[in-house]
Structures are given as structure tokens and as C-alpha cells.
Design goal:
Largest sheet: none
Number of domains: 2
Oligomer: single chain
Strand content: under 5%
Order of helices and strands: HHHHHHHHHH
Radius of gyration: 17 Å
Mean pLDDT: 92
Length: 216
């Protein structure tokens, strides 16, 4: 983890490591601790292009998916409520800063339907995208296996195709917000894979077999 490279408040770093990150260990495979760490690292990198409080950036990124403990549908809103209710955060941030952090977490979701309300939300949302084609496909399969265990392999294939079309194809709901991010080029690469159904199926078969074997 790269938090220490950004000269953050060591007490905040310790709180994230000891009290926030362990919460991710019980989530679906696509939203475990490694995901949270990747989002934190990406958010801190993107923050270097803006005049922002990096401690706030780190906390927003660390907490963005905490609401998954209450279900996926409104997890972004649940994350905001968790942040506002966290008494420890009041040791380091003002009420206004905590509200900004909560709004950033609420605005991170790609399907939220609106532009993030501020730069903290845009940084958190962009960091959460993590558009690496193989990772996107793997996380989609992992989520499907965790959430829809009743589906057979072909059912998971159809679900993945629907998800890819709805979110990542031209006209999909995913939006990018930070020009310094590498996500734009990676999204073009992912779209080329989606168009080539034989190649996409090859990725699917290999990853599905590996992920299914881990559940046996």
C-alpha cells in the first residue's frame, strides 16, 4: 500500500489499516481488501494533479464500498451514512469535511446517473473504475458466482454479456471524470475485446474455470 508515500496523517493511516480495510474481507470477491487498496492507491495518485486534502481523499477511497454490508443496491448511500456516523473521523476532520467525504463515497457509483458533486467525488469515482480488461472480466465473473450461484456456466456468460453491454459499451452508463487517468485508453481496449465475442469468450472460459475451481 502506498499511503505512506503521500505523507498522510499516520493516525488516519493506522485507522484505515486496522478498522476500515478489515471490513472488506467479508464482501464478494470483486470487492475485497485488494480492491479497496487499489482504489486508495489510484485515488492518491490522481489527487496529485489537484489542490485537495489527501487525508480526505484516502478516507473517501477507503470507505467508498463500506455500505456493501447492507446490500449492493444502495451501497453508495449506505457508505455515506457510515462515514457521517463515524465518531473517529471527527478527531481529524470538520463537519464540513466529513460531509464532503461522505458525498464522495455516495457519488462513486458508476450507475448513479449524475456527475459527482465535487472533485473528491470525481477522484473517488475515477479511482474505483480500475479499467483493466482482464480485471473487469474477472470481477464480473466473481460477482456473478457470489450473487447468482444458481446459474450454470452459460447463465453466467449471458449475465456477463448483459453487464458489459449495459456498462462498458459505447453509450453505457460508465463515465470517466479525470483526464489524467489511464482509464480512457483502457476502456477503448476493453470495448475492442467486447466486440470480439470469440476473444471475450476465451477470457470468460479461462477465468470462469479458475474462479469456479476456487469455490469447489
Amino acid at each position: 500500500m502506498k499511503m505512506k508515500e503521500y505523507l498522510l496523517n499516520p493516525d488516519i493511516v493506522r485507522y484505515i489499516e486496522e478498522s476500515i480495510l478489515p471490513c472488506y474481507d467479508s464482501f464478494d470477491l470483486g470487492h475485497r481488501r485488494d480492491h479497496a487498496l487499489n482504489v486508495i492507491d489510484a485515488a492518491l495518485y490522481l489527487s496529485s494533479f489537484y489542490d485537495v486534502d489527501r487525508n480526505m481523499v484516502a478516507v473517501a477511497a477507503a470507505c467508498h464500498d463500506l455500505g456493501l454490508r447492507y446490500g449492493r443496491e444502495d451501497h453508495h448511500l449506505s457508505s455515506g451514512r457510515i462515514i457521517r456516523a463515524d465518531e473517529r473521523l471527527k478527531e481529524w476532520f470538520s463537519e464540513e469535511q466529513i460531509e464532503t467525504i461522505a458525498e464522495a463515497a455516495e457519488d462513486h457509483r458508476a450507475s448513479s446517473g449524475h456527475e459527482p458533486r465535487g472533485i473528491y467525488g470525481k477522484i473517488t469515482a475515477e479511482a474505483d473504475r480500475q479499467i483493466i480488461p482482464e480485471t473487469i472480466i474477472r470481477r464480473t465473473i466473481q460477482y456473478g458466482l457470489h450473487t447468482y450461484p444458481q446459474l450454470d456456466k452459460e447463465g453466467h456468460w449471458r449475465r456477463m454479456l448483459e453487464h458489459m453491454a449495459e456498462k462498458y459499451e459505447e453509450g453505457g452508463y460508465l463515465k470517466l471524470w479525470i483526464p489524467q487517468s489511464a482509464n480512457a485508453g483502457r476502456l477503448r481496449e476493453l470495448r475492442e475485446i467486447i466486440k470480439d465475442k470469440a476473444l471475450l469468450r476465451k477470457y470468460f472460459d479461462e477465468i470462469f474455470e479458475a474462479e469456479s475451481a476456487g469455490l469447489r
